[in-house]
Write a structure and sequence with these properties.
The structure is a single chain. By secondary structure, the chain is an alpha/beta fold. The protein is built from 4 helices and 8 strands; from the N terminus they run βαβββαβαβββα. The strands form 2 sheets. Strands 1-4-3-2 form a 4-stranded mixed beta sheet. The protein has a 4-stranded mixed beta sheet with strand order 5-8-7-6, covered by helices on one side. The longest helix is centred in the middle third of the chain and has 13 residues.
Length: 140
C-alpha cells in the first residue's frame, strides 16, 4: 500500500493534535510521542505534527512561519457540504480560523481553515459526476 506522511512543524503538538482531532483525524499511537503526534486522515494519509525542537534534529534549516508566508496548502475531500460545514465549525472551535470566503462552483463547495500554526487546509465537497459531465459538454 502506498502512503504519504506529511511532516509539519508546530509550536504546540498537543494543541495542534486537538485541532486535528476536531477536524476528524484520529491518532496513530505507534508514531506518537511527546515530540510528535501522528494524525490519520485515511489508510494512506498521515500528518506528523512535530515540535520545533524535534523537527530540527535531522534537518537544520530555518523554519518558515506559515502564518506569514505562503506555503503549500492541503485539501481534504469529504462526502457532503454538511460535513464541510461541520468540520469547519469544529476546527474553528479548536483554534482554527477561516481566512477566505467560501468558494463555490457548479460541482464543488470549498471552505478553507488555518490551523493554530497557520497551515492552510481546504475542506471540499466535490460532485465528481457533475464535474465530468460539465467537462464533456462542448464549449460553444
Amino acid at each position: 500500500m502506498k502512503q504519504i506522511f506529511i511532516n509539519i512543524t508546530v509550536s504546540d503538538p498537543e494543541k495542534s493534535m486537538q485541532f486535528y482531532l476536531a477536524l476528524g483525524f484520529t491518532i496513530n499511537p505507534l508514531f506518537t510521542d511527546e515530540d510528535q503526534k501522528c494524525m490519520v486522515w485515511s489508510d494512506s494519509i498521515y500528518i506528523m505534527l512535530q515540535s520545533r525542537q524535534f523537527s530540527n534534529v535531522y534537518l537544520e534549516k530555518q523554519k518558515m512561519d506559515a502564518r506569514r508566508y505562503q506555503i503549500p496548502s492541503f485539501t481534504l475531500q469529504v462526502e457532503s457540504i454538511e460535513i464541510v460545514n461541520q468540520m469547519m465549525e469544529n476546527g474553528m472551535a479548536a483554534g482554527g480560523i477561516e481566512p477566505v470566503s467560501v468558494f463555490r462552483e457548479e460541482f464543488m463547495f470549498l471552505r478553507s481553515i488555518e490551523d493554530p500554526d497557520g497551515y492552510l487546509w481546504g475542506i471540499m465537497h466535490l460532485e465528481l459526476d457533475r464535474f465530468i459531465a460539465l467537462k464533456k459538454t462542448p464549449q460553444g
